[in-house]
Every structure is written in C-alpha cells, then in structure tokens.
Amino acid sequence: MRGDNKMNIILYGTGKRFRSFIDCKFYAEALKRHDYHVVGVYDKAKAGERVTVGNGSFVVGTQADCVQGASDCIAITSDKYFDEIAGELTALGVARERLIKLSEIETELEDDVYTFQRFDGRYGIEIGGPSHCFAEIYRRCRGCDDVNFSADTVWWKKKENVYRGGTRTLGKVFIADAVDLSMIADAKYDFVLSSNNLEHIANPLKAVAEFVRILKPGGYLVIVVPFKEKTFDHRRPYTAFEHLLEDYKRDIGEDDLTHLPEIAALHDYEMDPPCGGRENFLRRSKENFKNRCLHQHVFSEETLRGIYDYFQVEVLSFACLGANLVCVGERAAKSMI
Questions:
Q1: Fold for domain 7-110?
Q2: Prediction pTM value
Q3: DSSP strand pairing (99-101 vs 123-127)
Q4: What is the rounded CA–CA span in Å between residue 240 and residue 224?
C-alpha cells in the first residue's frame, strides 16, 4: 500500500465482498481520509452492465479498461481466487505489483479504528471466536488464548487444546462461560477480544466485568457486536444500558429466556434461513442454554459506551464497520473491578 499518497483503484469483482465494501459508510469515509479513489470496476461476466449498490451506481468496465486503465492498483475482491485471477491478469500484461487483495485495503482502512500496532508483541485472550475481523490482530500479537462456553458449539468445535487463528497456533483454550472466568487470574492479559459474542449473553455486564478483571491496567478491550440494521434484529428495539444494569444487579443467569416472546415476534426469519422458520426457531431457543444461538440483547453505540464508562474503560475509537459495531477501549490504571 502507498501510505499517505493518493491512490487510484480499480475493483475487480462485483460480488458480495464488493457490495459490502462499497455499501459501508466507514470504508467510504476512510477512503477519502487516505486519499484513495475507486476509479473503475471490472467483472468479466458483467462488462458493460450497470451495478447499483445502495445509493451508488457503477458501469462495469471492459477488460481493456481494467488492464490499460490509469490506476495505481487493481484490488481483487476475492481472497479465495486471488492467485488464479492474478495469474490471468499478469498473462494479459498487468504488472504483478499492481495487483492486491481488497482485504489488504480493508485492513489498512480498519487501522483507523483498531490501531493494530498496539497489539504488536502482546498476549491476549478472545471470548468466542475465532473471528475473521481479528485476523490482523492474530497476525501481529505474540499469542492469544480463547474461551468458549462449550467444546462443541454451532460455530466452533474443539479438536485439540490449542487455539488457532488461520494456520497460526495462538494459545490455549478454556472451556468456560464468559460470565465466570474464575480459572483466570486478575490482570493477566494485554488485551481482551470479543466479536459477535456479547449479544448472546443474557447478563452482558457480568461478562464484561470478567473481561475487565482479567485485563491488565492499560490493556485493550475490543468488543464487536452486530449493527442491528444489517441483521435479522432490525425490527427490535435497542437494549438500554439501564436494563443491562438491572439484570446485572439481579444476577440474571444464562438460562434466562425473559426476552424470548419479544425476540420471536420481531425476528426477521427471511433474513435468517439457518434458523429454519419460526417454529424451529422457538424449539431451538428453548434449548438456548445448550446452544447459545439467541441474540438476548441489541446494542447501540450509546449502550456500548455506557458499558465501557461503567467499568472505567476509556473508549479510544468507535465505528460502524459493515454489519458490525466496533468499540476499542483502554482499561484505566485504577478501575472499579
């Protein structure tokens, strides 16, 4: 990448990855901050067609536009087929150094939120996972342990007593509930990560209390939760911080199904094909303590900031990144935990 220099980019591919990138307000604003400009779009199956994404519209260029166009780089949207596509383009005369993965651009832009260098050489722990959004942290950190509530979840299965991020062995695995990490010493880790996990917890403040307890003073807490407008929760109201605090004081257990009637009534089943429809959703939800599939709460920026403030974790950055809200904070030198 070119750092602070202006860069003109042609995007290769108009599939799901392209659409999520173009439709993300954060990426659009970050491109402007970095002086990066999308000057063309190419897809060999759609040359000449108009592609509309959100409020934007693009005419897909020809192969000649892609190969000979005045761009600094061609960003290939597919990581899986990058080598194959790169081979085709270099055979047409495109210099190899002009070809990059779109994911590399995304990582550079996301540094505006994460400031990835703060994780260099640090040792942390993830609650849930592994998570694609933390790939760059996995790459940079010294190591990372993991906590999952079961050795066999809908999202992950324990095959050995090591935690892996991609092909890298990161650390060990604890099988424990996020609300009770008593097997882990106070102030043990440099960072705590949690992605698309907190919404599944009936008593989120009890869990975050544990996250902060095992975090060193000056350590980093990164919480990623779904942005409801992009998910099957879009009809549900946000959970107020005051509600979470009441649940915390009442010591609500993880077997709680108080919110199930509201969730079932407002869940968008068409956006959630894996749930198998309303009846199957209800059957699965009644076994939620075993599977933890239910989104117990819906988080807004205000609610997340309230959680960080309550536990004296300073919010360093906040962003709506695609279908997720990302909050990065630093634990105070002296905290209430």
A1: Rossmann fold (3.40.50)
A2: 0.92
A3: unpaired
A4: 17
Task: Of 59, 54, 83, 55, give the one whose Cα is nearest residue 10.
Answer: 59
Does the CA dihedral 140-143-149-150 come out positive or negative? Answer: positive
Q: Do 66 and 9 meet the contact criterion of CB atoms below 8 Å apart?
A: no
Q: Nearest-5° angle of CA 295, CA 298, CA 302?
A: 155
Q: Provide the greatest CA pair distance for the chain.
A: 67
pLDDT digits (tens, 9 = 90+) for 54-90: 767 888 988 888 888 778 999 999 999 999 999 999 9
Instruction: Tell me the pairing of strands 56-59 and 163-165.
Output: unpaired
Q: Is the dihedral of CA 109, 115, 119, 120 positive or negative?
A: positive
Under the phi-then-psi rule, with left for phi > 0, alpha for psi from -120 to 50, and beta for the rest, what region is 35? left
- Can you tell me the distance from the alpha carbon of 104 to that of 116, in angstroms, rounded to the nearest whole number? 13
Beta strands in 82-231 (DSSP E): 99-101, 123-127, 143-148, 163-165, 168-171, 173-175, 189-195, 215-226
Q: What are the domain boundaries of the chain?
A: 7-110, 115-331
Q: Are 90 and 53 in contact (CB under 8 A)?
A: no
Q: What is the CATH number of domain 115-331?
A: 3.40.50.150
* Residue 201, SS3 per DSSP: coil
| Residue 321: Cβ within 10 Å count | 22
